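Now for one protein, fold included:
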Amino acid sequence: MDLYEIVIWIVLGAVIGWLASLFMGTLKKTRGIITVVIGILGAFLGGWLWRQLGLPKFFTEVILNTLLSGFVGSVILIAIMKGIGLLGKKK
């Protein structure tokens, strides 16, 4: 992983966090900086999982691959946070 990919993950983290929060129904609970942090951490988690599982890159553009893996990682992160009660009560 090079510096370009890291910068892309951080910049897109805000967008990814917002999309994942919207998708998971936690947008009202994760406003502002928390949404950005979830997106950035989710992008790193998704990128790491993607590599560990040996999944192929679906797009030639690193930005599109980062969006896809980051979204998946953010959704996983939000699900974990909901499961342990950090984003409201468990259902």
